[in-house]
Amino acid sequence: MGRLAILALLLAAIVPPATAFARPAESYAVIYKSVTGTTANQLIASLNKHRTQGSWAFTYWKVTRVGCRTTLTIRQTLPAWQDSGRAPAVLRRKWNGFHAALLAHEARHLQFARSAAAEIDAMGCSADPVRVLRKWIATERAFDRRTQHGIKTGATLRYE
Ligand SMILES: [Zn+2]
């Protein structure tokens, strides 16, 4: 075996297989909470009654690492309005605007979670992920402060 062949073998041993760059495993689920009402005030009262972690919607996530395997677990809790068929058109329009803004807000939380998991996954097996987790949690908190948990971007309903 010549030197070139040995070098090629060494490189093959050093360069990880493509699967090492695969995305982290992900467990994603949405939990819908029923909310009711045919007026804005009733709907707000129902949303307040069915809060998760103090919010009308919530994106919970955690990154776990077992050996070299990174797993991202996401549980999104979202409101599902039961009375839209019986409600006046003006309230349906208000809900649609609110709901779209709410989904967009929670989608950003989802992005933060996936970014954190991808960064941790790319760190290598022995690296400590705590610093990366702290960074992404701080990024999320800053995002919630900036948007007032989505209120500034339309994820809210007003009393009539
Ligand atoms: Zn938020």
Looking at this protein, list some descriptive labels.
alpha+beta, elongated, three-stranded mixed beta sheet, disordered N terminus, 160 residues
What does this structure look like?
- With 160 residues, the chain is α+β, with helices and mostly antiparallel strands.
- It has one domain.
- Helix content is 46%, strand content 21%.
- The protein has helices spanning 3-14, 40-49, 89-122, 130-147, and strands spanning 25-35, 58-66, 69-81.
- A three-stranded mixed sheet has the order 1-3-2.
- Strand 2 and strand 3 form a beta hairpin.
- The protein starts with a helix and ends in a 13-residue tail after the last helix.
- Mean pLDDT is 88; it is low at 1-20.
- The site of zinc ion has 5 residues, from helix 3.
Helices and strands in order:
Elements: H1 3-14, E1 25-35, H2 40-49, E2 58-66, E3 69-81, H3 89-122, H4 130-147
Parallel strand pairs: 1-3
Antiparallel strand pairs: 2-3
Bound molecules: zinc ion.
Distance between the termini: 83 Å
Rg over alpha carbons: 22 Å
Number of separate domains: 1
Largest sheet: 3 strands, mixed
Which H/E pattern describes the elements?
A: HEHEEHH
Q: Roughly what percent helix?
A: 40-55%
Number of helices: 4
Side-by-side strand order of the widest sheet: 1-3-2
